[in-house]
Each structure stands twice: as structure tokens, then as C-alpha cells.
Automatic annotation (TrEMBL):
<dbReference type="Pfam" id="PF12399">
    <property type="entry name" value="BCA_ABC_TP_C"/>
</dbReference>
<dbReference type="InterPro" id="IPR032823">
    <property type="entry name" value="BCA_ABC_TP_C"/>
</dbReference>
<keyword id="KW-0813">Transport</keyword>
<dbReference type="InterPro" id="IPR027417">
    <property type="entry name" value="P-loop_NTPase"/>
</dbReference>
<keyword id="KW-0067">ATP-binding</keyword>
<dbReference type="GO" id="GO:0005524">
    <property type="term" value="F:ATP binding"/>
</dbReference>
<feature type="domain" description="ABC transporter">
    <location>
        <begin position="25"/>
        <end position="265"/>
    </location>
</feature>
<keyword id="KW-0547">Nucleotide-binding</keyword>
<dbReference type="Pfam" id="PF00005">
    <property type="entry name" value="ABC_tran"/>
</dbReference>
<dbReference type="GO" id="GO:0005886">
    <property type="term" value="C:plasma membrane"/>
</dbReference>
<dbReference type="InterPro" id="IPR017781">
    <property type="entry name" value="ABC_transptr_urea_ATP-bd_UrtD"/>
</dbReference>
<dbReference type="InterPro" id="IPR003439">
    <property type="entry name" value="ABC_transporter-like_ATP-bd"/>
</dbReference>
<protein>
    <submittedName>
        <fullName>ABC transporter ATP-binding protein</fullName>
    </submittedName>
</protein>
<dbReference type="GO" id="GO:0016887">
    <property type="term" value="F:ATP hydrolysis activity"/>
</dbReference>
<dbReference type="InterPro" id="IPR051120">
    <property type="entry name" value="ABC_AA/LPS_Transport"/>
</dbReference>
């Protein structure tokens, strides 16, 4: 439902994006300026319900700014951003947007290093009630099952009682994805998930993100073109704050403009 700015808080948990048209995220004619410089320039983008989309573009193309707009960190000068057809994200703050079902994973993992993998997931499951309340809250059978399911999804069943600080870099990234999943998001925004990962971890991350699509919509910002190639069905290329091209990886790779402004530089051509 559309909300008036400043209206009383709704139960964001109960917000259900209207995806009857198959689209979970509408970004329309959005511009963002920083001191007169247009970081986003009349950008429009639509993410379908359940799809896995890769977002690529050179440094400064506007990828982070776009994520910031979707998650309420940056307000656009103009444009429309909605979750499903009717939930106007521009009238919600960052916490409300997260509770409504949009999860964001930043590049650097931010797990609680001194807690176990299980405890990290337990905290996420309880939301933002405060760390002590969370730690002493007894899990219901259903919640234990949820954690077991997440551990399975992120491939950390064997590490369940390990301190998160002792995990490898890749495992920490998966744990953080698991922590996002605990909040049952509909849309996941994932920033450079494989930066710093080993080849094996990268491969496992590709499987994980691919497995999440369908039940979730996933937007991945990534510079690693081999990784993008391995997961992407549809790729959006940003350039100077606008969408330059959109299509399958082979369409993108054979687009002369994309090769000129981005891929040429990536492949050293
Ligand atoms: N808070 C800010 N103040 C001023 N300029 C900004 C601000 N945030 C971003 N910019 C500028 O906006 C442009 C887009 O930046 P953005 O970080 O969105 O690009 P990006 O595609 O995410 O790049 P990268 O791949 O390097 O992360 C850049 O030129 C950047 O310098």
C-alpha cells in the first residue's frame, strides 16, 4: 500500500509487495546528484520476482549509489522506487525497508566474530530486539528448524558451533548471507560477493546465489566477469549513472558500446 510521508509506522513485516505483474522492484527515472554531479542519471531498472540479476559497470558507474537508493540510504532528487507495484520505498527509512523484505549484503563481512555460527544466525532470526534479549531468548522448534535449514543452505552445518572469527573469508560471507536469510527477505542485494575468495569458494558462492533465486530475487553487483558469466541469466550494465545495456551475457559481450566502455577495459582489449 502506498504511504503518506510521515504517516504512522506500519507493520513492515506484513508488507507484501504486489508482484502480480512479475516485477518485485521498480526503479523509474531516478536521478541522484552530489554537488551537481549526477551519480544516477534518469535511471530505470526493473527486477523480476525470483530472478538473479547481475549489475556490472566501471568504477563510478553508479552501482553503489543505486543500492543506496533502493535501501533508503540515499534519497534520489527525482524518480520512483517501489517494492512490488505499490510499496513506495522512498517513504520508508532504512530499517523499515529492511523489515519489509529487502536485505543488503555489503562487500566486507560483518559477522559477530566472538559468537558461534549458530549464535550469529540466532541473533538474526530474532531481529533487532537487543543483543541480550536475543541471547537469552529460547528458540522455538520452528526457529531451530529454520536455523538448521539456513545452515544447510549456506553449507556450514559442520561449522555450526565454531566461532565465526575462525571461519575462512568465504565462510564468513556465506554466514552473512545466512544472517540475511534469517530475516526472510524477498529481495537480496549482494555487493561483490566473491572479492577475496578462493576459486573453490567462488564456485560455491555461485551455487549458493543461484540456489537462492526463485524463492528470492537476487541482485549481485560484481566486477569478476568470470563469476558473472557463471551465474548470470540477465546482466544490466551501468554507465555514467544510466543503464547502458541489458540482456544475456552473450548479448552484453557482443554489444559494441559495452565492449568499448567496460568490457574492453576489463579484458584489456
Ligand atoms: N556521497 C558522495 N558524494 C559525492 N560524490 C559521490 C558520493 N557517492 C558517490 N559519489 C560519486 O558518484 C559516482 C558514482 O559512485 P558509485 O559509488 O555509485 O559508483 P560504483 O559504480 O559503485 O563504483 P565502484 O565500482 O567503484 O564501487 C562516483 O563518481 C562517485 O565519486
Amino acid at each position: 500500500m502506498s504511504r503518506e510521508a510521515g504517516s504512522p509506522l506500519l507493520e513492515e513485516e506484513n508488507i507484501k509487495p504486489d508482484t502480480r505483474h512479475g516485477v518485485i522492484l521498480y526503479v523509474e527515472d531516478v536521478s541522484v546528484s552530489f554537488d551537481g554531479f549526477k551519480a544516477l542519471n534518469d535511471l530505470s531498472l526493473y527486477i523480476n520476482d525470483g530472478e538473479l540479476r547481475c549489475l556490472i559497470g566501471a568504477n563510478g558507474a553508479g552501482k553503489t549509489t543505486l543500492m543506496d537508493v533502493i535501501t533508503g540510504k540515499t534519497r534520489p532528487d527525482v524518480g520512483k522506487v517501489s517494492f512490488g507495484q505499490q510499496v513506495n520505498l522512498l517513504e520508508m527509512d532504512e530499517a523499515q525497508i529492511a523489515r519489509a523484505g529487502i536485505g543488503r549484503k555489503f562487500q566486507k563481512p560483518t559477522v559477530f566474530e566472538n559468537l558461534t555460527v549458530f549464535e550469529n544466525l540466532e541473533l538474526s532470526l530474532h531481529g533487532d530486539k537487543g543483543i541480550w534479549a536475543n541471547l537469552f531468548h529460547k528458540l522455538s522448534g520452528e526457529q531451530s528448524d529454520e536455523i538448521a535449514q539456513i545452515l544447510h543452505t549456506i553449507g556450514l552445518v559442520g561449522e555450526c558451533n565454531m566461532q565465526a572469527g575462525a571461519l575462512s573469508h568465504g565462510q564468513k560471507q556465506w554466514l552473512e548471507i545466512g544472517m540475511l536469510l534469517a530475516a526472510k527477505p524477498r529481495l537480496l542485494l549482494v555487493d561483490e560477493p566473491v572479492a577475496g575468495m578462493t576459486a573453490q569458494e567462488t564456485e560455491r558462492t555461485a551455487e549458493l546465489l543461484t540456489s537462492l533465486a526463485g524463492d528470492h530475487s537476487v541482485v549481485v553487483v560484481e566486477h569478476d566477469m568470470a563469476f558473472v558469466r557463471s551465474i548470470a541469466r540477465k546482466v544490466t550494465v551501468l554507465h555514467q549513472g544510466s543503464v547502458l545495456a541489458e540482456g544475456s551475457m552473450s548479448e552484453i559481450q557482443s554489444n559494441p558500446e559495452v565492449v568499448r566502455v567496460y568490457l574492453g577495459e576489463e579484458t584489456g582489449e
